[in-house]
Amino acid sequence: MTEPSTLFNNEHVQHNFSRAAGTFAAHSPVHYVAAQRLLDRLKDTKRTFKRVLECGAGTGTVAQLFPEYHEQPEHYMQVDSCADMLSQNPAQEKMQLDIEQPLPFAERSFDLVLSNMLLPWLNDVPAFLLNAGKCLVGDGLFMASALGVESFPELRQALHNAGWSDTGHIVPLPDVQQVGMVLMKVKFALPVVDRDMLTLTFDSPQQMLQALRQCGARNLHPARSKGLTTPRQWQKLITALEVQRRPDGKLPLTVEILYITAWRPHSSQQKPLAPGSAQVMLSDALKGSQ
Q: For 10-151+172-199+255-266, CATH number?
């Protein structure tokens, strides 16, 4: 994942989502599907989560879907850096705060910490994971989704064909291996990272690009051009997208969604045997199976 410090200006990120707050819920199918599939993974656990913290809660999609997948918790705290996104959230338990900073909750306050599509907008993902882990009780669960590095291949190709480098237009995104390494670095236990590929379809290039803006996916890369895009440059991009039409007439846009689950370490968790601690020789086991 990207080294911490300066990938994003946090004020720019908040301003970006403030602009998208009014349209976000109606124009964020990836966010909605990721929330559904993230919560579906709760079915794999037999635990009851009485105290839940959601970081990057935005307009409240995950919280509103939560009762469809799990027993409603006693407390469900939603936090976000953007006040305008939270203003669209009907929850009573919500708080605006800087998610890049240590979270203002006592250690071991929550049984479950959730984060849906927040990680791509953070400068220091390891620091956030460390802070989130501190909020969990022993054997508490952390779950998150994030865009993966294989997202937007059609847009990347169109940018290339139009003579635009995708550097400065699409922010760096993590791959499965990078996420797994970060989870181990901050001492989460039993980490699992898996992925889905999701393809959206659009009637026109303009509809595709407008949909990205309406869900907050504007270009905030620090290496982006500060000048205006000329009509000629814009038309080259539109033409490069047009040639990607499928036989059904639709324009595809593919996204990779990573799903992350990990636990705060606890003595009750299963641990691998130490090297040399086996009580049965492999040769004896093989003989017994013949």
A: 3.40.50.150
Terminal CA-to-CA distance of the chain, rounded, Å? 48
Q: What average pLDDT is seen over the chain?
A: 84
Looking only at the bridges linking them, the beta strands covering 136-147 and 251-263 are antiparallel
Residue ranges per domain, the chain? Answer: 10-151+172-199+255-266
Q: How far apart are CA 148 and CA 195, in angstroms?
A: 8
Please list the residues that pair with 145 across neighbouring strands.
Answer: 116, 259
If phi over 0 gives left and psi between -120 and 50 gives alpha, with beta otherwise, what is residue 82? Answer: beta
Partners of 53 in the β-ladder: 77, 113
Half-sphere exposure in the Cβ direction for 165 (13 Å, CA): 7
Ranges of beta strands (E only) in 9-159 are: 51-55, 75-80, 94-96, 110-116, 136-147
Q: What is the CA radius of gyration of the chain?
A: 22
pTM: 0.84
How many Å apart are CA 69 and CA 171, to the nearest integer?
32
Contact present, 24 and 82 (Cβ < 8 Å): no
Token code pair at residue 41: 């993974």
The pLDDT tens digits for 32-77 are 999 999 999 998 888 899 999 999 999 999 999 999 999 999 999 9
pLDDT score of 252: 97
What six digits make up the tokens of 131? 């802070």
